[in-house]
Amino acid sequence: MTEKLHIVGGGMAGSEAAWQAAQMGVDVVIHEMRPKVETFAHRTGSLAEMVCSNSFRSDDDEQNAVGLLHWEMRAANGLIMSSADAHRLPAGGALAVDRDPFAETVTNRLKSHPRVSVTEEEVIDLPEHGHWIFSTGPLTSPALGEAIAKATGADSLAFFDAIAPIAYAESIDMNVAWRQSRYDKGDTEEERTAYINCPMTRAEYEAFIDALLAADKTEFHEGETAGYFDGCLPIEVMAERGRETLRHGPMKPVGLTNPHKPDEKPYAVVQLRRDNALGTLYNIVGFQTKMKYGAQTEVFRMIPGLGEARFARLGGIHRNTFLNSPTLLDEQMRLRSRRHIRFAGQITGVEGYVESAAMGLLAGRLAAAEILERPLPPVPQDSAMGALIHHITGGADAKTFQPMNVNFGLFRPVDGLKGGRRGRKDRYKAYTDRAKQAWAAWLDSCAETGVEPA
Ligand SMILES: Cc1cc2nc3c(=O)[nH]c(=O)nc-3n(C[C@H](O)[C@H](O)[C@H](O)COP(=O)(O)OP(=O)(O)OC[C@H]3O[C@@H](n4cnc5c(N)ncnc54)[C@H](O)[C@@H]3O)c2cc1C
């Protein structure tokens, strides 16, 4: 008899993980605290409840990274995707979902599965033995959050994401911006040119501050704010404290010389820092914000050099429990210090329903394969699944790690294709073709090990 797999949290990730493992022939126990213990965002006791929007975003598997993730999950017999497809609502190119019947379908299919049982309980400790996946999400219960922080080190678990916007490097105008670290600090040329700098004149700075103050902002949910103001002030709050505050904070113009205009001292400088090992993504340093998404794009494109910028993700500040996965998790999503425990879903530092379910799919398969003692080949980095797992378990910079949506910036570039806006369509098609091939080959090799889900 094989050992059981315990999954804590039956949300997007936990539900998919349970399904994959059960289909592979492993008995699964889902420990879900709702409806006994509630969160401020969930409304029901169903598994896989969609807490806010009812969209799985773009369903375009040729030109969109999240659409590609849909494709990969469908190819892997994913429960979340098949239930979403069964309750699809008209929404143009997006996959919108009728949320209540969707969650009921996921719940019923899991509860009626002969290998799955669900217990209603809050887990408040990391167990010493057994096979476990923790997929307790952005609203992990406080008691469990404390236990995880104790086991991993307090600095390794965040309770808020203070996200600065992330731009695609290729969309930054380097005829305006330049690469330089403040005071040319660093031992290597790479370190001395680690930042991209965008200069502002006084008039540009004043206009930027006006736009920031006038922009639409989102409000915190009730009960969401406890413990938030430690070191992550939104830029608009800094601007409210005084028009010059940002110029003396994240936008200070010191230690930098603009090679395009060496005789002109910028009044302020916006800095962007490399966000991934590939160098395809850059975050705007210190620019966490509660501005609404539409307003952010408008305001950030006022920054010289970012006039045409495209953003892999926009900024935000939310209640969100997540691990510093690049330091804590191995390539199999196991806690390095306790390899019988895996993490999955949003708590690993991915962002979104689809990405969370995707990481559940992988964790479920990897855990089941381990229990069955039939290890799977490494997840291919060129697939959307592989790009995500690689990012959270090593590709991202651990020092600035913040939750991430799937996007083409996480993919290794395809050689020989045109850069910039013009080549985008061909480039994205090349990424998605390559990904599908890699993912299909991986699924085939899973089947060869004899552990493919039924
Ligand atoms: C307010 C809010 C709005 C969001 N809006 C969107 C959106 O519109 N679109 C989008 O794509 N993403 C959104 N997200 C982000 C995120 O993708 C979703 O929260 C997603 O559901 C995460 O999946 P998950 O499986 O990791 O966590 P969840 O789906 O939250 O599942 C975690 C489960 O674990 C349970 N749990 C927690 N602690 C314990 C414990 N100690 N013991 C037992 N069970 C426990 C919870 O009850 C929950 O059922 C939002 C997040 C929040 C907080």
From TrEMBL:
Please give the family membership noted in the entry. Answer: Belongs to the MnmG family. TrmFO subfamily.
Question: Its encoding gene is what?
Answer: trmFO
NCBIfam families given for it?
gid_trmFO (TIGR00137), PRK05335.1 (NF003739)
Which UniProt key words apply to this protein?
Answer: Cytoplasm, FAD, Flavoprotein, Methyltransferase, NAD, NADP, Transferase, tRNA processing
Where can this protein be found? Cytoplasm
Domain (MnmG N-terminal): residue spans on this chain: 5-374
Biological source species: Lutimaribacter marinistellae
Reaction catalysed by this enzyme: uridine(54) in tRNA + (6R)-5,10-methylene-5,6,7,8-tetrahydrofolate + NADPH + H(+) = 5-methyluridine(54) in tRNA + (6S)-5,6,7,8-tetrahydrofolate + NADP(+); uridine(54) in tRNA + (6R)-5,10-methylene-5,6,7,8-tetrahydrofolate + NADH + H(+) = 5-methyluridine(54) in tRNA + (6S)-5,6,7,8-tetrahydrofolate + NAD(+)
The cross-references to Pfam families, in alphabetical order and at most eight, read:
GIDA
Q: Which cofactor does it need?
A: FAD
Q: What is this protein called?
A: Methylenetetrahydrofolate--tRNA-(uracil-5-)-methyltransferase TrmFO
Assigned EC number: 2.1.1.74
What coarse category fits the chief subcellular location reported for this protein? cytoplasm
Query: Which residues hold FAD?
Result: 9-14
Function according to Swiss-Prot or TrEMBL: Catalyzes the folate-dependent formation of 5-methyl-uridine at position 54 (M-5-U54) in all tRNAs.
Q: Could you say which enzyme class this protein belongs to?
A: transferase
